[in-house]
Design goal:
The chain is globular. The protein is 57% helix and 6% strand. It contains 15 helices and 5 strands. Helix 5 packs antiparallel against helix 6, helix 8 packs antiparallel against helix 10 and helix 12 packs antiparallel against helix 13. By secondary structure, it is mainly alpha-helical. The longest helix has 21 residues. The chain folds into 2 domains: 93 residues; 169 residues, Intergrase catalytic core (hpI Integrase, Chain A). A 3-stranded antiparallel beta sheet has the order 1-2-3.
């Protein structure tokens, strides 16, 4: 791969987590389009209006979600923009791609866990007193307590944890932006328990643990391992088709239901806009009913 290619330059400016996911998505796209692997990078920056519409049609037929299709189209447009800046693509080509509207999608899928489900989940996790069990308990505590994305979670190192301030430094969030995540008091118990097993050696905060109990701080816990773990544990408490993002939805919904203002929630979740935060709001009609019942214009005595 030429480091001067529009593809390489576009991918290179993304955060490490976004870089992996976008590269994987574009690889899947090129396979669906039956492009030769050696020509993939060139084909991407040569996409014009007609080819873009064909790509979108192909991805739709392959049952890609509207969000995934829109994300792929944004990446293609970004690659073409780099090619225009390099002088190897025409401005008109970019203008045509920018005229294509994003696909509309319905309400954000997924659910937020109830308080009872969270209690049941933590209760079951606490039953495993092995090193892996303590690590897994912290995985859930951090996702529910800070709303971290799965990719942000596995990228954390021990240095990112500030014991005094009770915070985590998220170095490469979405859009390659850093932020501070504040830890609730109840998560610190699980953090301290895990660190007694993990030790204070440099390396990843949530690292690999072998079946015999050996802790490898230099090996990050793989995000696919986190995915399988969460799917299984949610299924164990009766949540079918659960996903790691459901824990993020739970975090956001819980904050909003506790009357935290939405702009604060946006910052805590690492969203660039409030409109994105509202998508994750899973408060139900019962909450709105209670809110309406509390609405009053009577003067205080």
């Amino acid at each position: 791969m030429s480091t001067a290619s529009p593809y390489a330059l576009y991918i290179g400016r993304l955060s490490p987590n976004s870089r992996r996911s976008i590269a994987s998505q574009l690889t899947s796209l090129s396979k669906l389009m039956q492009w030769d692997e050696a020509e993939r990078e060139q084909r991407l920056y040569q996409v014009d209006y007609a080819q873009a519409m064909l790509i979108r049609q192909t991805l739709t037929a392959a049952d890609w979600s509207a969000r995934s299709i829109n994300r792929a189209m944004i990446a293609i447009r970004g690659i073409v923009k780099v090619a225009v800046l390099q002088g190897i693509a025409q401005q008109q080509q970019l203008a045509q791609l920018e005229s294509i509207q994003q696909l509309k999608h319905g309400e954000h899928q997924g659910t937020a866990l109830t308080t009872k489900q969270v209690e049941q989940l933590i209760y079951q996790l606490r039953a495993d007193l092995s090193p892996i069990g303590y690590r897994n308990l912290l995985v859930f505590a951090l996702l529910l307590g800070t709303g971290l994305r799965r990719s942000e979670l596995v990228a954390l190192t021990l240095k990112d944890y500030d014991k005094t301030q009770k915070t985590l430094l998220v170095r490469h969030g979405k859009g390659n932006k850093s932020r501070i995540a504040y830890l609730p008091e109840w998560t610190l118990e699980y953090m301290q328990a895990w660190l007694r097993i993990r030790s204070q050696a440099d390396g990843y905060l949530l690292c690999s643990v072998y079946a015999d109990g050996r802790v490898k701080t230099h090996e990050a816990m793989h995000d696919s391992t986190v995915y399988r773990l969460i799917k299984q544990k949610l299924q164990d408490i009766g949540v079918e088709n659960g996903s790691p993002h459901d824990l993020r939805r739970t975090f956001i919904t819980r904050l909003l239901s506790q009357s935290v203002d939405i702009n604060t929630v946006r910052q805590m979740a690492g969203h660039s806009t409030i409109s994105t935060t509202t998508i994750y709001d899973k408060r139900d009609h019962e909450f709105m009913k209670q809110a309406a019942a509390q609405l009053s214009y009577r003067s205080l005595p």
